[in-house]
Amino acid sequence: MSDEIPKEGMDRRRFLTVLGATGAGAMAVSGCSTERIEKLVPYLVQSEDQVPGIPTYYASTCTECSAGCGLHVKTREGRAIKLEGNPQHPVNAGKMCSQGESALQGLYNPGRLTGPKTRQPDGSFKDVTWDEAIAALAGKLSGAAGKVAVISGAGRGTFSDFLAEWTAAAGGRVVRYEPFAHEALRAANLRTFGTNELPAHDFSAAKYIVSFGADFLENWLSPLENQRGFAKSHGYDNGNMAKHVAFAPRMSLTGMNADEWHPTKPGADTAIVLAMANVLLSERSGNPADANALRGALAAFTPEKAQEASGVGAEVIRRVAREFASAKPSLAVAGGIGNQHRAAVDLCAAVNLLNYIAGNVGTTVNFGSDLDGGEGYGALEALGSDMDGGRVSLVLVHEANPVYSLPAKGGFAAKFKKVPFKISTSLYLDETAALCDLLLPGLHALERWDDLRPRRGVIGLMQPVMQPVFNGMATGDVLLKTAQKAGGAFSRFSAPSWEVYLKTQWQTVARAQGSSDTESFWRSALQRGGVYTEAPVTPVRLAASAGQIGSTPASFDGGEGGDSYWFAPYASVLGDGRFANRPWLLELSDPVTKITWHSWVEIHPELAKRLDVREGEILRLTSPHGNIEAPVYIYPGLHPDVVAVPLGLGHTAFGDFAKDRGVNALDLLDAKDGNGFLPYLATRVTLSKTGQYKKLAKTEGTTRQLGRGIADAMTLEQAKKGLTPALALEEQGHEEHEINTEREVEAIHGFRESQLEKRKHGAYVGDQPMWGMAIDLAKCTGCSACVTACYAENNIPHVGEDEVRRGREMTWIRIERFWEGGGDTGDPLETRVIPMLCQHCDAAPCEPVCPVYAAYHTPDGLNGQVYNRCVGTRYCSNNCPYKVRYFNWFAYAKKAFPEPLNLQLNPDVTVRARGVMEKCTMCIHRIRGAQTAARLEGRELREGDVNTACAQACPSDAIVFGNMKDPGSKVMALKTNHRGYHVFEEINVRPAITYLAKVLHRTEA
Amino acid sequence: MAKPVPGVLAIFEHIDAACDAIKSLRAQGKRNFTVYSAAPNHELEEALGVTNSPVRLFTLIGGMTGCLAGVGMTFWMSLDWPLLVGGKPIATVPPYVVFMFELMVLIGALSTVTGLVLLSLTKRTTGLAYDPSFSDDRIGIFVPAGGETGSEIERIVRDAGAVEVRNAA
Amino acid sequence: MAVIAHDPQHPNQTHAEVTRDVVNTLGTADRGYFIALGVAVLCFLVGIGTFTMLLKDGLGLAGYSPPVMWAVYITTFVFWIGIGHAGTLISAILFLFRSPWRTAVYRATEAMTVFAVMTAGLFPIIHIGRQWFFYWLLPYPNARFLWPNFKSPLIWDVFAISTYLTVSTTFLCVGLVPDIAAARDKMRGWRHKVYSFFSLGWKGTDNQWRHYTRAYLYLAALATPLVLSVHSVVSWDFAMSIIPGWHGTIFAPYFVAGAIYSGVGMVLTILIPLRKALKIEHMITDYHFDNLAKLTLLTGSILFYAYAMEYFIAWYSGNPFEQETFWRRAFGPMWWAGWTMIICNAFVSQLFWFRKIRTNLTALFVISIFVNIGMWFERYVIIVSSLSNDYDPYAWGQMTPTWADWGILLGSFGWFSMWFLLFARTFPVVAIQELKEMIPMPRLRKGGH
Questions:
Q1: Can you give the residue range of the structural domain that contains B114?
Q2: Are residues B131 and B112 in the same domain?
Q3: In Å, how far is A961's CA from the nearest CA of chain C?
Q4: Residues B78-103: pLDDT tens digits?
Q5: Which of A591, A829, A868, C336 is deepest in the core (most CB within 10 A)?
Q6: CB contact under 8 A, C222 and B59
């Protein structure tokens, strides 16, 4: 079916989405939870929004991070089977990220708690009824008056307000804890501008982006929105392209997408920022007056000083500063998790100044949106000491896992244990829940009523899109029921249910939006997925405190000695660890290292040489606070004296997928307060060999493309000249590709024509669409959202760590990442990423070699693969130059979807059996669906009727799918672009996928 | 076991003796006698005036049939349900030559053997007197005959140099 | 029969002696034989066990790691097919060339051919993902009205190999009939009955011989191009693909030569112990081994040339993919396999320039083992190393065989040896009637003819 933005008027999507409001009622007939799985649904009385075989879409909101993207939840026969972006939503505009896609595996996770439980004297848990559970809670509440605490990771919304009120009624306090809360950024804003709000950043407008370790493509504030903006500004668009410079100890995904990455000495980057500010102030006229006042204060910070401190060349700093100033508007960002050292506040404050001086505040840095973030670490630490002091007798943990996400050194677990009565509403038995006395598993965001206010002006709604998978209960309902039981101060919570409470609250929203008919307002909001308005930009001036310029480098625990190295933990695919129970994300190869399933430690090639370690050798990292062991990955994208380890693994609970997998990098950290936040980049470690070895479960063969022109690139100048990739290569002095003479081309063409004639038999007569794709490498960041989207859409099984180790992963679309330059070449290290999927070649080498016609060419130009016919000779894979065919060596699907994960399977796509070959189908089920729909409407297929899952998800809009026979189509426009090329053009297999060469914003020396 | 044919069985140790016997038998106008030997022998063939065996016709016809079967099968099956692979023509000669050749050899060989069997059956072998030594190092000539013709034949083979002569009745 | 007159190989044996010596090899066997047979059967059972596991759990048990989608099984498949070729060469081609020395050895080699092809024939079934659907490769009328894809080299294989198996089996049986008859006439009791049955009523009458000799000639004539075609087709499994290291026009002749080389190697490995065990040293003599060794030298030298050409063309073509592949074949992660192949095939065979080595049985035997190893590795290198680094460097990967690979390999040797051993004690491994054909019969009157 069409996955495009709903047109005006009442098309099917819109109609069904509207029905979402009554959807909850309808859910009852479409039983799907595992307990009720046996119940047959007789469609004798057709429920109005349940048409067997036709998906129903419900608008909802993503709660995987605080960004609060809008969703369209695709359900079939009462089961959510796919999450797609809500095109109307201002944050994600219909796009998705891997983490968001994987919410389904949170919903259907086998590790979910099946119902309320209480702890027995012997320590084990015992199932109880909800009434018993609520009674228990109510009983304890009355006893614990005044000594109640709540730790909540819930995003800002009606629930968090309610929770605050409720806790207040209980005479306690709420700590809104979000591990990555960007506290430093808040503190800095308070210092510089007198507000601790988090501003919105407009990457799309920025012409020049400097990032000081802010991984804005991974986990910084609103990653998906950032990426959308970044793709717009940094993606090449006839002659225009923003430049992105990154200063960081480690080249993260964000750094990979920078035109310049400068390895900086950890904690010393403040000096660079101040030097840049200094250059701006001293060299530029027309700076804001109040900024000029700082000139004196900044005069001392010369680029030379900065070079001493950070190891980045003074001339580089000067140049970047000038470029930064001359590009209007520009944008500087800081405060990322990977760069959160003890001086992070100084750094962010300095960056604020830089932006302010350059005049970016109000253009690319917009206050007033007040992004959601949570209070984070400081408040939690305070609570910890209260627990320690026995000043808390009842604690309720909601959507947070502090026992895991805080360094063990801090002893939070011990403090937490001291609380007499501990309640968890977690859906899973995570580390924190495991310590609790009462488990009240809540409902997944897709099972409950809720809303979210990620920023001012944006309210996202959530509605139950299906019956709960297990016997959970919305925490809102639990608290209301408890309140009604407890009475007393709680008596004002009279709402019969959370749904009613929410609706009542929304009447005020309606009024605020100036709508009198609250019911229809509610309906339309529900249909749109919420209320989206533009928050006015509030102007800010420098605060008095802006002058306080901290420039002392951050301090580090652990020896300064030559044998100790900076330890940089960073958040990658698994974030703060909350995603570690989701096989899609565990098997999703890390965008930077391409490693799956386990932990690793990144060390610089030079360091590896010095220590004489090979890839896979297991090293022991020892800090003053603890030690971990992980296999080595040799990574050129590091400051030579930095070792990096990803966060998120090393769980001791949290379901079978997460438990006892990898190591927890937090074990090396001190929990000491880096004034209000957890300093991730604050330790030095010593390395020692363990003598053990572990083959990395990584999906890459080699890191270089050996000049084979797989992921081509050209400089901005060449792009402006309109060169083709081949010509660009020649200009760069590479040996020229052999080009056929006119007569040869003639001959080849003539031969091809004659061959085409000989095809015309049976179904191949007549004119049909020809499906194709164009992928713009100037936009692709390698974020891998397409990969997860493909897993979700096409029932791709995960194969597990050992199978990945043997290269047997089934990623129909994979992101290939190659290094250019770096190492001994002397050139700066550059990255090329290219999504590699079946090219649906017109002269496909895989087809003729199949003895049984399992691989054949469809009349509409697709490279078909008939699973039922395949006998598994694997010849097709051998003969595929792109190696995008995947074989079911075992019955992977059987292992990959344990109950209830199987409920997520897409009914439109075959679950492949053992012994057959599979590969990208260009979502042929969507194409056929759209064709049927069009036929029913008695019209031709239109541009935009079909889109593949990968193209639909791609936050950068790098992937474009369409009909190549339609000259007006977007895909043809791109295919005819001068940057277009085919991978391995010389073997003349005529791929249906055209890549657009990456454009390099190199420094004009 | 077919009922025994009456006649004379002469056993030879020497090739030239056997040949002489055959020649004089043929001179007598005898044609329907049977010669046993452990291996094909040119002198015997000459004496018997053996002509080329028609088995080659089987080979020829079989081979041609096979080749045509190869053409027919590949083209018909390709066009019966046209499926496009690798942008190649639906039905095309070069890859199909393999099948024409292989089927030619296969059917050719099988029909040759069939020919061998059928042709060997054209002359009866059952019921004729036989001696195990014929598959070892002796040559045997069996002449179906009775009465005085029998004795006449006995004389001929003895003169030729048969080491032993039996009367099979 | 000028040939026979100065034929050094038959220290004037009489027909009777030939029959006696050969027939003595039949029937009763000693302990050594049964031990050998036992070992063979045991290996075969290991193979069966492994295959059962493959059926139960899936091909994943073998060491495949993409992009290496074919590995030990296809390697072994080509290996056994190759073995077969020497047999047909000796029995059919040398028959057409009237080469006298083949007579004493051809029966053994022809039998080897049949059993080798029988073994090879199992692999296309073992190695596919859904073994239980192997018959989908045959053009049989089915409910789907779907026929196989005749453009696929794998279907060429199906036809080439089944034809080869049928024809060489027929050829072997036809040759056997008169000898079985000879054996029959020496046997008593139940053995006599059994051999009578298999002799199909053969009496060696003039009429039988008349058609027999012709039919045998035409079969040989058909088998000759067949043997050349079969390995060409097998080589096209690779040559027809686009993988650097596979996609070569040299492949057909190169593979045929390799096949015969490996086949002769196997002939030596088998005959040297066999003639001893069956006490037929006086029939299969140095003369034969000398000729076999010369054949090895010839084909080995052709391989030498082919290897050299592959590297030369890789360099000369200027095709970076091709160059990378061959560089890695020699110096990449699989260098050891690459050099095993070159040394065992190209270089070791050159030792046969020396007559001393050609006629020294111990040397011959050792070298023949090297030939077998070398030729197995040739296929392993061509298949595995070419696949492990083709076009897309990101997808490169190395594979390491597992117990499942070795289990099947062992099983195939067990299966082959089992059949050969059973054959050697049951049927004449030396062609009685063809030997006799070459030995003049006694004459009454001197001179004459």
A1: 55-120
A2: no
A3: 23
A4: 888 888 998 888 888 999 999 999 99
A5: A591
A6: yes
